[in-house]
Amino acid sequence: SSKPEKQGEKEASSGDVIMKKDLTIASSADIASLDPQGHNDTKSERVSCLLFNKLFKLNTDFKVVPDLAEKWSQPSDTEWVIKIKEGVKFHDGTEMTANDVKFSLERSLTQPKVQHVLSGVESIEVVDNYTVKIKTKSAFAPFLYTLVHAGASILPQAYVESGDNFAKTIGSGPYTFVEWASGDKVVLKKNEAYFDADNMGQMETITFRVIPEGTSRTIALETGEVDIVEELQTIDMSKVEENEKLALYTKPSTTINYFGMNNEKAPFDNQLVRQAMNYAIDKQAIMTVAVNGAGIEAKSVLAPTILGYKESNYAYDPAKAKELLAAVGYKDGLEISLWASGDERKRIAEVIQANLLEVGIQANIEMFEWGTYIDKLMKGEHQSFVLGWSSNPDPDATLTPLYYSESIGGMNFSRTNDKKVDKFILSARGELDLDKRVATYNEFHQYIMDKAPIAPLFVKNNVVGANAGLKDVELSPQGLWNIEKIHY
Amino acid sequence: MLKYILRRLLMLIPVMMGVTFLVYFIISLTPGDAASIILGDGATEEAVIELREKMGFNDPIILQYTNYIKGLLSGDMGISYDTGKNVSTEIIARFPNTFKLTVIAIFLSVVISIPIGVISATRQYSIFDNIGMILALVGISMPTFWIGLMLIILFSLNFSFFPSGGMDGWKSLILPAFTLAIASTAGITRTTRSSMLEVIRQDYINTAKAKGVSRKVVIRKHALKNALIPAITVIGLEFGVLLGGAVLTETVFAWPGIGRLMVQSIQTKDTPMVLGCVIVFALSFSIVNLIIDILYAYIDPRIKANYS
Amino acid sequence: MGEKLLEVKNLKKYFHTPKGLLHAVDDVSFSIEQGKTLGLVGESGCGKSTTGRVILRLLEATDGDIYYKGQKIRDLNSNEMRNLRKEIQIIFQDPFSSLDPRMTVSEIIEEPIRLHKLITNKNERFERVLELMELVGLSERLINTYPHELDGGRRQRIGIARALSLNTKFIVCDEPVSALDVSIQAQILNLMKELQAQLGLTYIFITHDLSVVNHFSDDIAVMYLGKIIEKASAEELFNNPIHPYTKALLSAIPRPTIDKKVKKIILKGEITSPINPECNCRFANRCNFTEEICKMKEPSLEEVISNHFVRCHLFKG
Amino acid sequence: MNNKVLEIENLRIQYVTDDGTVEAVNGINICIDKGKTLGLVGETGAGKTTTALSILRLIPHPPGKVVSGFIKLEGLNIMDLSEKEMEKIRGGEVSMIFQDPMTALNPVICVGDQIAEAIHIHQNVTQEQARQKAKEMLEMVGIPGARMEEYPHQFSGGMKQRVIIAIALSCSPKLLIADEPTTALDVTIQAQVLELMKELKEKFQMSMLMITHDLGVVAEVCDEVAIMYAGRIVEQGTLIEIFTNTKHPYTQGLFHSIPNIDDRKAKLIPIKGLMSDPYNLPKGCSFCNRCNYAMTICETQKPEKIEISDTHFVACHLYKDNLDFQLRQ
Amino acid sequence: MREKVEVINTDLKKKKEDLKKKAKKRSQIADVWKRLKKSPAAVIGIILIIIFILMAVFANYIADYQTDAIKMNVVNRLQSPNKDHWFGTDEFGRDIFARIVYGTRISLFVGLISVGIALTIGGTLGAIAGYYGGKIDNMIMRVLDVLLAIPTILLAITIVAALGASIMNLMIAVGISNIPGFARVVRASVLSVKDQEFIEAAKAIGARDHTIILKHVLPNSMAPIIVYATLKVATAIMATASLSFIGLGVAPPTPEWGSMLAGGRNYMRDSMHIVMFPGLAIVLTVLSLNLIGDGLRDALDPKLK
Ligand SMILES: Nc1ncnc2c1ncn2[C@@H]1O[C@H](COP(=O)(O)OP(=O)(O)OP(=O)(O)O)[C@@H](O)[C@H]1O
Ligand SMILES: Nc1ncnc2c1ncn2[C@@H]1O[C@H](COP(=O)(O)OP(=O)(O)OP(=O)(O)O)[C@@H](O)[C@H]1O
Ligand SMILES: [Mg+2]
Ligand SMILES: [Mg+2]
């Protein structure tokens, strides 16, 4: 299921082959920063990926593949020796060396937004001009996955130290920086001197345009003002599909939406109640209402594309839910508060609210503004909530922050505090043998879904609308990918 | 006159102090922790605590505020908590866009509403008058984003007259400016109409007619100038409303203005950025109103006499 | 000689304006005997109304003393002043704007009685209102009408009834008839005279209409730019005006007769601004008899003939 | 040769409002000879201003409406003219001065321009010449020409009224309508302005319609007087006839209401009651409910015009059968 | 001479009793109402508003809250207007008609209360500033200038962010941001009244300041305030729509016009009815309030008969 499905296979009629050499991509929000270590969001990452290289990168199947790295080895459980390709040039023509690598990775530890990415690293040594040795604090299986994060991009040390503050950003990627009009657009130009001839940029220029409103994005695509809409509003999927000139791409993402419960507070401190919730919620209805069906039902705490996934067997069964509730003594129903933030989560909450009403639970929705929401969730003031989580390909990147007991007060909003869960997480993290790791995770899934700290809802599809004339549009679970390869 | 302007400009200082203080204070009331925002999702508790100490977030509000003001007075608006960008650079990049949009919108609504108001007044209770007033009312009763989306569907999608959003060329200005203008049109039209009605009953209008001045000239030369005075006040106030209302228009039309920046910054509790935005809002609002007051003096010699 | 009911000494009222200090009332002194009428005449803006208002403490004086029955009005605290208001009242020029447009006739007349709790019983109060209305000649079917539904004459009667609703002894009449048609004006003037005779009222009668003041007042003070420039009994003033301004004023009245034409004295300019006036005779630049001294020095108010005071350099003692 | 500058015949004007119809002017006849001044005297609401405005065809419409009658200016019936032609007459042939100088000038246009505008419209001159002429006019009414750049608020009431006079006279009109031109002014200023108007009237050989409620003013400037009551002219005659041979009880009432400045002991004899509700005028003589001489016929029948002399007539039943009837003194 | 009082030879006392009764009968409200009735536009406005009020009061009889207004029915989602659903259904399959009917309660309430808040606070400040003038005036107005210079939306967002998104807080937020406007209008209006002679007349009869403000100044400065208030009720309803647009509306599933409109905007291209009907409801309410406001302004002016 990892091949992008191009739905409604259509080619622009051969008569009018489009010869455009510039690509405009509509995205819903502006990038936060051009410094790849100054942000931690997908919009910015998409741009930094074109401007910078990392030692490794993910392919569309979510596998780690080398980017700058030429060879790597693991002398011990905690040591990684990586040699980068020779002759990689930054946009200003200077060559990339191991010093830049050491500098970049060390810098990432000091940058607030990304200091967590390589927090497992103990030290970095320059072995020779093109080789570095990285020591981790402990055996850390998903280490290579951390290196694909934008925060681990390799920056030109000289440039960064010049204090330009990324005003005229210089990287090594397939595209060079031209302009960033805050709130409006980012313009990139093809890097003719890119080191990787196989992955050269295809279009002369790429423009990322910010169009916050969904309907406006679709219309811009329809009028041809933009070539690709990276987050197509799901209600408009059929419109794009039916339009001769447009093509629709969808692919399940790694973003899992879940109904979270505060495991420390009644009534959700009771496992049976939590299980009842898993039966009471009609995931299909949620998907229909929230994303117009563009997703797949979620059956565990992670997206199916993620390593070691194993689904649970909860199904929509209000009768069962009632039964369970009755068993714990909530025959006459109960009242809970349900928190949400943002438009989509509001819709999800509304469906949940309606579902719960059927089993005799009155859920009062409280809406918060995003910053407040997260803050209050961290403080554990909630009873239940709706949230999404987009994860790295490595399961640990989800499980530790979300279910590890020490993350309570952080992202562990369900406040899961279970010795066994902790043990699973720790042992899987240190397990370097892939099969064993997968087995541990399989078992973990079973265990945690029985505990049911949350009720998984659905995994949203990435939905991209594009001009039908565009070729090589590929989606990865993270969304629009390999932008440098897209062309008319 | 110059003295008056200077005095007014000086008056801005306490107002700005008040504005910044109030906003600083309200934001500090909102839940959410700046340190964890700066650090982002993956931050550890220790890092948060450390940063909080370092940035002085544990200090009393007043102290934090005075520190901010000290920075401000030396021209430093601070660094965005959220993006690490320099607030003043960011605002300088964004504000002109909003300003341009607002000014064009005001211009449009003046161009639309003054003639309607005048004609309505001169033909009080006629069909034109009634329809004009009802349209004006319908104008204010439609939410901005709704009008915006309708205009996009109509003029970008169906007729491809104008781009659906973004900011290149004058064409992209038309729809957002028009959307923004519609709401203020009602107020200005109604004020123009009522002050015009007031003015055409004045004796000097009769004097002018008795001189043999033709009807059109009476309206244009004698009545309009007098009727403009209250209308201008409303225009000044509307300017503030528009500045504030630009948020929605900017969102719908992907206009990279300061309204969107502000809302976004509030949501991330990016205090320096919010304050930066508010300061330019408040400043431009106050300055526009100062300009309006100066305009009065030009239109109305009686007021001019008071200023000097 | 009757007893002095009201005495004003060196009264001053200055207003702060953007252009400077406006001397609206500048060192005015006079006194009124019980049951008499003092006429205060002068051109628009000379400070007549301000004088009236300051006496009633609707405006606070800048300087000077006001004695009512020997009591210093300016020293009263707000409660004592409120008590005093039962005795001293005012009737305004514009019978429209001086009546609250949202109150009916009976409410307007009743209000002072109610505020001062003179009559607490509602029915009795109502009787009193009807009584007052009859006194000033208002038909009782008007109790429920609003002022705007009535003509100027009737409105002014309401104002009079209101002024009389308390234990009124003294009334400042600020141009009570100048907004009315002559036919109505005569009705009101007669009414006020009657009331004076009946109730022993004392009036200050402010007007710019000399023919009215002549008819109405016992004594007349002529004001010019905040100062009293001539003061005498009405008879004396009209028979023997001394100050050039008074003379001009008297001659300028249009007389509704065709036989006795009076030669008009046409004054040159217009009233000068009362803001920061210079220290000279304030009439100097319009006067047909200006001499050097007029432009140098401010004349003082002198008793030229017994009980006839004039402020002019040309007439001294 | 026709020497009549203005002839109004049987003019009837109504204001139709939601509350009813006001018969503001009810069949009046006026005529003014060249160089003569007619005084139109009456109480508030008598219809004086309405009459004046009708001569310029400036009655606000709606609610105002000329129901019947015609107005001739030097023999030309203005009721037939187009709006364009009317604009030529306004300010050119006929000028009007309004009651309140405080509000009759446009506050935002400098006085010079306000005078020049009239000149520019009616005389075939350039803007510059018009302004030059305006300056001369200003000087003629006794205001330094240098002040023509100033605005009305910088002028006192008397000066404003003079500016208005300057505007009115700037095109040497044949007829000047003065609607209570001095009511809002102080007596000393009033005397100045009246003096000036008399002078200028002589100089320009104008006819004048002087509207006022002040019999003193009438005595000073008018040749003829028309007394108006509730939309009708109840008595009309030369100045001497009206003042010495007062016929109508209303006219007499007016005289008795004025305090006599030369006899301060004289008692005022007011006219009793109030003017009738204009929406609801009595069927017979409008004055009958206030009249001391009222007879039964007065309540039911409108009085006819009765000629006392060639120039003097009165509309009153008292004289119907007895031309020599004398009012009680 | 005194006007003769018509004396009728019946029992005088009885007549006075009658008069007294009559005196009570003629209240100002009745008078205003009489005048208001004369304006067709105002009457239309009143009828519309009454319909809305009736809808709010009798919502229970028109539609069932549980089964129509908030019950989800995914199968029936996004239906165009039809026999069963007069105004169609929304993205949850809820009946839009029922939601609009129930929404009347919230929207009118939000509009009225937030304007009430602004009017009381702003009005008091404005009246004090206008009546006393001088330093007090200057101080109050400068403080309000500060509030005025802060964009409404920011004030609203921060208040809602600080206090949470509930109907109450929404009303407070919209209310507070309207304070300076009301203060200005009231002040201007008070200023125009305070120099009239009848205020001086009230002082002269010994009325105290607060009596004067409450009984004389405010009733006479009501007209512009009422007009402004009706306008602002409209804007307040719209403000809730704007706040919903940025995700801070009332808590779901409460039907409220603003949030219906904002929430339905993604669907407007295919299912116009989702935004059309709530939009129409807002337009009609605003329109009728404004018509009433205009009518009231004239009716409240006793001089305009
Ligand atoms: N509240 C005030 N503030 C400033 N100046 C004032 C005020 N009240 C009156 N004046 C000024 O004081 C002077 C005297 O005014 P006042 O009203 O007493 O004159 P008046 O003789 O009654 O004139 P009128 O005949 O026009 O009523 C005028 O120049 C007036 O402009
Ligand atoms: N625009 C109007 N609408 C309705 N009625 C009007 C209008 N103008 C005048 N009237 C009425 O017509 C009648 C005559 O008014 P007009 O103004 O001619 O009287 P006037 O004699 O000039 O009175 P004044 O001495 O007050 O100027 C009055 O009853 C007045 O109420
Ligand atoms: Mg006065
Ligand atoms: Mg008139």
Automatic annotation (TrEMBL), chain B:
Keywords annotated in UniProt: Cell membrane, Membrane, Transmembrane, Transmembrane helix, Transport
Membrane topology: Multi-pass membrane protein
Listed GO biological process terms: transmembrane transport
Chief location category: membrane
PROSITE patterns xref list: ABC_TM1
Residue ranges of every copy of the ABC transmembrane type-1 domain listed in the record: 95-296
Keyword Transport: yes
GO CC list: plasma membrane
Subcellular location, record wording: Cell membrane
Superkingdom, taxonomy of origin: Bacteria
Transmembrane stretches, start-end: 9-27, 101-122, 134-157, 169-188, 228-253, 273-299
Record-stated family: Belongs to the binding-protein-dependent transport system permease family.
Protein name per UniProt: Peptide/nickel transport system permease protein
UniProtKB/TrEMBL annotation, chain C:
Keyword Glycoprotein: no
Top-level taxon of the source organism: Bacteria
UniProt KW ATP-binding keyword: yes
GO molecular function: ATP binding; ATP hydrolysis activity
UniProt keyword terms in alphabetical order: ATP-binding, Nucleotide-binding, Transport
SUPFAM superfamilies: P-loop containing nucleoside triphosphate hydrolases
Residue intervals of the ABC transporter domain: 6-250
One Pfam family linked to the record: oligo_HPY
PROSITE patterns: ABC_TRANSPORTER_2 (PS50893)
BP GO terms, sorted: peptide transport; transmembrane transport
Similarity section: Belongs to the ABC transporter superfamily.
PANTHER family given in the database record: ABC TRANSPORTER, ATP-BINDING PROTEIN (PTHR43776:SF8), TRANSPORT ATP-BINDING PROTEIN (PTHR43776)
Name of the protein: Peptide/nickel transport system ATP-binding protein
Automatic annotation (TrEMBL), chain D:
Xref: InterPro entries: AAA+_ATPase, ABC_Ni/Peptide_Import, ABC_transporter-like_ATP-bd, ABC_transporter-like_CS, Oligopep_ABC_C, P-loop_NTPase
Highest taxon of the lineage: Bacteria
Topology term for the membrane: Peripheral membrane protein
Annotated GO MF terms: ATP binding; ATP hydrolysis activity
Gene Ontology BP terms: peptide transport
Database matches in SMART domains: AAA (SM00382)
Main location: membrane
Subcellular location: Cell membrane
UniProt domain ABC transporter: residue ranges: 6-255
GO cellular component annotations of the record: plasma membrane
CDD domains (alphabetical): ABC_NikE_OppD_transporters
Keywords tagged on the record: ATP-binding, Cell inner membrane, Cell membrane, Membrane, Nucleotide-binding, Translocase, Transport
Family named by the database record: Belongs to the ABC transporter superfamily.
NCBIfam families assigned to the protein according to its UniProt record, in alphabetical order: oligo_HPY
Name used for this protein in its record: Peptide/nickel transport system ATP-binding protein
Source organism per UniProt: Marinisporobacter balticus
From TrEMBL, chain E:
Keyword entries, A-Z: Cell membrane, Membrane, Transmembrane, Transmembrane helix, Transport
Protein known as: Peptide/nickel transport system permease protein
Localization of this protein: Cell membrane
Source domain of life: Bacteria
InterPro entries: BP-dependent_transpt_permease, MetI-like, MetI-like_sf, OppC_N
Stretches that traverse the bilayer: 41-63, 106-134, 146-172, 225-251, 272-292
Main location: membrane
SUPFAM superfamilies in UniProt: MetI-like (SSF161098)
GO biological process, one term: transmembrane transport
Domain ABC transmembrane type-1: 104-293
UniProt topology in membrane: Multi-pass membrane protein
Pfam annotation, one family: BPD_transp_1
GO terms under cellular component: plasma membrane
Family to which the UniProt record says this protein belongs: Belongs to the binding-protein-dependent transport system permease family.
